Amino acid sequence: MAGHSERGYVALSSEPSQASTHSLLPPETYHATPHGGTLVVHTDGTSYTYAYGPKGLAGLKNNYFALACAVFASIGGLTFGYDQGVIANILVMKDFVKTFPVTSWEKGLMTAMLELGSLVGALAAGILADGFSRRQSIMTACIVFCLGSTIQFIARSIPQLIVGRAIGGLGVGALSMLSPLYMAEISPPEVRGSLMALEQFSIVLGAVLGFWTGYFTRDLPGSISWRTPLGIQIIPGVLLGLGSIFLPASPRLLVSHGRNNEALFSLAKLRMRTRAEASTDPLLQVELLEMRAEALLVEKTFGLSSKEGTVHAEVRAWKQLFSRKYIQRTFIGIMMMFFQQWSGINALLYYGPMLMKEIGMQGDNVTLLVSGGIGIVQFIAVFPTIIYIDRLGRKPLLRWGSAAMCLSHLTIAMLVHTYESDWPSHVTAAWVAVGCVYTFTAAYGISYGPIGWILPSEVFPQSVRSKGVSLATASNWSNNFLIGLITPEMMDISPSLTFVTFALACFIGYFWSTYIVPETANVSLEEIDAVFGSSAGQEDAELKREIEQELGLHDLISELADGPTSDDH
Ligand SMILES: O[C@H]1[C@H](O)[C@@H](O)[C@H](O)[C@@H](O)[C@H]1O
């Protein structure tokens, strides 16, 4: 076996050919079947590589416990999707309008309050999340969310409703960053994209449920019509809050707090190994050593560790996000959400009925049903992403998604410009426009929708991940708020120009995703550094290799490569 000093840098890769090589190893191939997933170490006598697998449905089947935890954590997304789905319906319900004769300014305020609350909630969670466990943070966010929902449910005046929405928003915003963060930290690399796409799944499921609950309760007598949909949202809040007690702790956070043994046990639980197996399973050791190597690297380079928990350390971590080393990643997170929101998805969702009228649809029911359909299309579109995202990668989906979204918007803009003065005589054109709205939604639902919630959690190292994700989430909420604010104005000025604006954002998004976004599929969170390939990354590579050797990661891989070919455990 090769001596320590001769060992090369070990890279994780989905394709053995993409990983870096190392000499002086014996010519065996070792297949180990760990924790459901597989770590394959290939050696051909001159080099070795290792990769996690399999991906897609097979990978999900192997990792059903992590899948179950991710599904549960994603209830956080359900809460905000539901609100988005329900609010448009509530604001036009007969009893609601009678009890609260709101002006359009108050209507806007009520919608926007939740978004503003969420913006604050997402940032606050970024400050608090590392000091507490992820589970405690999720539970706290749920308590706040339930409090806000209860106030909305029992509200007797407009100010009470507005306060309820602001408090509920705090919880929603915190959950919208905590759920993806936790999901990224517990996911096995080979199916991380699939598991994280569940966040989008829950958001859009929530939107569909919210929309149709409101649709069906709107004719109930009195205030039950709007109190019912507002009250129902307490259920997922309570469920997630109580259930979070049973979620396994994030092994990555434990490692960064120096609690390596607990991290190993939590990892074992997530990968369906017993405590006894935890200390002997080489593959769990590989995963854990990667996490420890990264934690040490961060401590050595910045003298920074999240266990410090002082104001000083906190400020330093936020500053790190804007340092030369991480600024590119910080902008990836922020811009990911910028492009997601400026694709125009929420303009369609919030002002769907109004837009549908603009493109020629007549009658209240038709417009409500057509815009309700947008939610359903988004929901269906997320399935192919869950199955294929780790195989196809993030970049191709983003690129083709932007292209299709841009073309759909342009076609709508053209049709609106040509026929807006006389839709009733151009029914076919109106339906083509509706078709384009759906094409746009499908393309968005496969690409920018889910990947918006995946990419930001992937690009940051552990030391700044919670803050990076919190900034990206804040970008989601602030752009979301801005779109809500200006879409009606833009539509007043020119409906076709509104669509051209969104088309332009998608057009720029195409180039951004082609030239700036790194591919993060099938790379362990600890190896993301390498995909950024900045000079700062190069400097770290050497130090990281030393740390990995110190911790014994390279020895372990070599032992796997030296061992007999086996897939028998
Ligand atoms: O990914 C989600 C989703 O697509 C929602 O429908 C949208 O309203 C959100 O703003 C977005 O972040």
From TrEMBL:
Any single GO CC term annotated in Swiss-Prot or TrEMBL for this entry: membrane
Membrane topology: Multi-pass membrane protein
Biased composition (Polar residues): 14-23
Catalytic activity reported: myo-inositol(out) + H(+)(out) = myo-inositol(in) + H(+)(in)
Domain Major facilitator superfamily (MFS) profile: 69-521
Compartment annotation: Membrane
Transmembrane residue ranges: 64-82, 109-129, 138-155, 161-183, 195-215, 230-249, 331-351, 366-388, 400-419, 431-456, 493-512
GO-annotated molecular function: carbohydrate:proton symporter activity
Main localization (coarse): membrane
Matches recorded under InterPro entries: MFS_dom, MFS_sugar_transport-like, MFS_Sugar_Transporters, MFS_trans_sf, Sugar/inositol_transpt, Sugar_transporter_CS
Domain of life: Eukaryota
Region: Disordered, residue numbers: 1-27
Family note: Belongs to the major facilitator superfamily. Sugar transporter (TC 2.A.1.1) family.
Name of the protein this chain belongs to: Major facilitator superfamily (MFS) profile domain-containing protein
